[in-house]
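Protocol step 4 of 6: structure prediction from sequence.
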Amino acid sequence: MKNRSSLHHKNLEKIFYPDSVAIIGANKMKGTVPYDILMSILNANFNGIVFPVSPGERFIAGVKSYKYVVDIEEQIDLAILVFPSAVCHLALEQCGQKGIKAVIIISAGFREIGGAGIEREERIKAIAEKYDISFIGPNCLGVINTDPRSHLNASFARKMPEEGPIGFLSQSGALCTAVLDYARAKHIGFSKFISFGNKADISEIDLLFYLMEDEKTKVILLYLEEVSNGKELLDAAKEVISKSGKPILIIKSGRTEEGAAAAASHTGSLAGGDEICDAAFEQAGIIRCDNVVEMFNRAIAFAYQPVPNGDKVAIITNAGGPGVLTTDSVIQNGLKLAKFSEETAKHLKRHLPATANRSNPIDVIGDARADRYNAAMSATFIDEGVDTVFVILTPQSMTDIDLIAREIAKVSSHYDKPVFASFMGATDVQEGIDVLQRNGIPHYQIPESMADALSCVVHFHKDQSKVSSVLITYNDVNAEKAKLILDEAVQNGRNFLTEDDASEVLKNYNIPTIPIQVATSVEEAKEAADKIGYPVVMKIVSQDIIHKTDVGGIILPIHTSNEAGEAYSTIIQNVKKHMPDANIKGVLVAPLISGGEEVILGMKRDSSFGPVIMFGMGGILVEVYRDVSLRVAPISEADATTMIEKIQGYPLLTEFRGRKAKDIEILKECIMRLSQLAMECPQIKELDINPLIVLEKGCFVADAKIMV
């Protein structure tokens, strides 16, 4: 098998920059997809030759038509298939015979309908493999390239979008048409616009790498309905961001999981699919968006304005209320209000009326015309303490809206600082908004959205260095011994390990455990407690019992030998009462550790992203407060640090109100060792260490569950 990745890279250029295109399945029926795609290419002034292929037609729209693609004498760079799905394989076979290496399959009726559709998709994949064809689709809208070198609209979108710096990738064709209409109204331009549908061959991964090297693309937007290979997506995103500096903004649908079954571990219940997506995207440096409006609000900030030097914002407004709301939003989004220099203060005093507010936010008063906005902008753009300027306008009877919009565009063009605008309203301000957008000034319907967009830009450029970090591999582990314990459990059909076996697995990865002993009688319980030293805790050991507390399977604290004997008998009685059929291995005796902070470490093996590591404050209330953080393994030291510092309970691990700091370095090490365990032992499905007791120096596993 040839390297499909290198083939894609080579053939994608033919998809976006073909010299010749064949529309296979074209017809004369207006209002149909085959006809509309042909006309889209012709009407967009494509810089190449177009060949309609239609068995029953000699000419379509004044262009000579061919019965079969193999009848065309010239070389064809790109074929667009719009035949019914049942015969697409025949057309693709002919493309292979013709030597065509790049194909877009528009037709629906494949995997998305199940049954016979899945078979059809497998058939076209086999043909593509046979002839080294790279294809986009099936079940897609098509591809648009606004670059004047090509000017290709190989889609059934209504109109060609404006040229611009944004590359847009979407799994949904229907969403694409709505996005194009939305963007056209706001004069948002695209470099490449790609609907990849079922991604049976070319995936979002291939397209991300292509856009990484595309000189016309500055920002990459991606809409996904499924993450079929999360690990590959994360690795690709990290590489794209680190090598090109281009931001990747994602909308991933399916945030809720209705009707999900109760999980058997804390990690299973807390690390849901959407929480994992959030954590994984953040880990890779991807910016997740909730909806199309939020995505484009952020995208235009990246695409049309220079990168700010910092996080200090100047606000200019002609109304006090919006200025205050924007100030709140600036602070809430982790930005700062700029403090003006003396020169700026003097300039504002000279050019603004006495009733104006000359501190930040600057209120130029409701009757302000373009001259006051000019004065305020000129002063703030020059001020070295200002990194970004927000301009807000509310329409008053005396406001010269269009002139102010032109003034914003003119003044900002002289400076290398970003400017965002919010002309509040709809009808009265529309012409002014149009002026701003045509001049590449990001406009926001509500001023608070400016702060969210700027915050994304500032933090993206600030956090890029954190995306990639050196991984630590521990050589003092005994992976083979751990795997033997896990393999035995799998072979015996056990769903999870008993606590003593779980402790042994962790011990083999040098995750600190406490001395434990399993007793099978009252006398053994007494002897074990005497040997370990008091106080102790005693817990049921049974492969049939997950949550010991629920069946009265834990007793603590135990201070004497007699108490240990009584505790053994009580635990056995409790378990037999609540779960008479449970297979009891014995009662575990362990030292009771006090004086530390309880945290939880966990692992869940996700079907798409692989092992996911969880950290949070521990104990029985972890699912109530849900104060946890997630990262996809392997975990670097930087990832581990972020996980610890991200939770709300982090201050409890530091010097806090007279309490001494806990050993955060050993906690980081435990997270990274757990990550290595998860990567090297695929038998583990879920794992809980709850609690891990962190002391001022060192830590200990107090309880552990491992599911296989």
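Step 5 (inspection) to follow. The CA atoms of residues 108 and 139 lie 4 Å apart.
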